[in-house]
Amino acid sequence: MAVGLAVGVANAYLDAMCNATNYTAPTGFYVKLHIGDPGAAGASNVAGETTRQPASMAVAASGVITNDTAVTWTNVSTSETYSHLSF
Q1: Residues in CB range of 52: below 8 A, 6 or more apart
Q2: 3-state SS assignment for residue 21
Q3: What does the pLDDT look like over 56-78, one tens digit per residue?
Q4: The model's pTM
Q5: How many angstroms separate the CA atoms of 33 and 49, rounded?
């Protein structure tokens, strides 16, 4: 299973911390369903319901961040087993 940050995000964080460049945050945060390991790029084993859902996050505290609204899908297939998410 792919775990961790996308390469582009990791590079941007590292450059901001180590090379004094500005980090530009993404304009939105989305969740996507998968029926298997999404791979490092988050593009493999995509569920039939391909719509990414926006996720709203609360302010981080003590090194933890959580969503502050429910993320729901209303058009999912009953013939698939969802086992992974990508962000």
Answers
A1: 30, 31, 32
A2: coil
A3: 999 999 999 999 989 998 888 88
A4: 0.72
A5: 7
